[in-house]
Amino acid sequence: DAVRAWARLVETLAAATDTEALDAAAARMALELAGAVEAWSFAWDEAGRPQRAPMHVSRGDAAPSTPPTALAIEARLARRPVARPEGSRTLGAAPVRDNACDAGALVVSLPKGADFGVDVAAPLAALAAEVALVRRALEAERRAEEAVQGVLAALTTALELRDGETERHSQRVQGLALDLAESLGVPQGSAEMAALRIGAVLHDIGKLVVPDAVLHKPSAGALDDGEWVAMHAHTGVGARIVRDVPPLRDAAALIEASHERWDGAGYPYGLAGEAIPLGARVFMLADAWDAMTTDRPYRRALPFEEAVAEIHRHSGTQFDPRVVEAFDRVVAGWIRRVGKGDRLAAAA
Questions:
Q1: What angle do CA 243, 247, 251 make, to 5 degrees?
Q2: H or E stretch at 101
Q3: pLDDT for 313
Q4: What is the pLDDT of residues 81-94, one digit of tens each?
Q5: Quick one: 118 and 201 in the same domain?
């Protein structure tokens, strides 16, 4: 029973999605594990500064006490569990240490007459060790996400310098693509959704190597055969760019297939149907929708109803019919939100 209880405890900690949720869970668990009246979870940054006010929980209607910061610091300096009397109760604390760095402390206030003996101190120290492990993983995820966002910003800025519309286009395509994926049941937080989020922003990154004379032609119909070859190469180039960046490489297959068509008439490989990654099928529709509903130097945007009809007309040829059905659900949501207002504004 004790092993199963501890396994549930670890599972609960591991489910925390950020350090604030982790600290809240740790305080609740410390309260139960120690049979305490109150519990606090302190969190410090690498310089030893508080990250936030300590998370506090109490049993029943107990009025919250002043956070025992001094005891938390004492445990941090001692690097082991410590205790001291506080009126009729005993306070106990265990440091949360991560790679020899003081990341915080768990502090409990025990009921009157209870001692902070080894039967309380040892489980609290074990809990603090688990909190440190999960905190390390969350911090690593946060830093990795910051690195990804930094790379994304650098690449999109580079593309923006080539084509002032590309960044805004990518942001709009990403918004619609994520809505479509959610409607199709892709779980939030999944690797597939993460790849889609990145790929939707970077699906045109290969255009960095497309000559300006080709990139800025007023319409696709003005391209000659050689220029079409240069333009078609951008998906493969984009895939190669992101494959060389570990946090981005999961999006490579989606970027490479972002111009494949459901009927097999796309490029670069002529893939058809479900041989095309779902994310790429989503890109295809989101990209086409944005192209149709955005003013260009050489033409005005299509009216909303005409653009929707054009999506339906190409269902089963250019677009996956299932993605078109998801698009209809997303459009219905836009219309519900704005009523008779500007539906294109809702889509932006």
A1: 55
A2: strand 101-109
A3: 97
A4: 999 998 888 999 99
A5: no
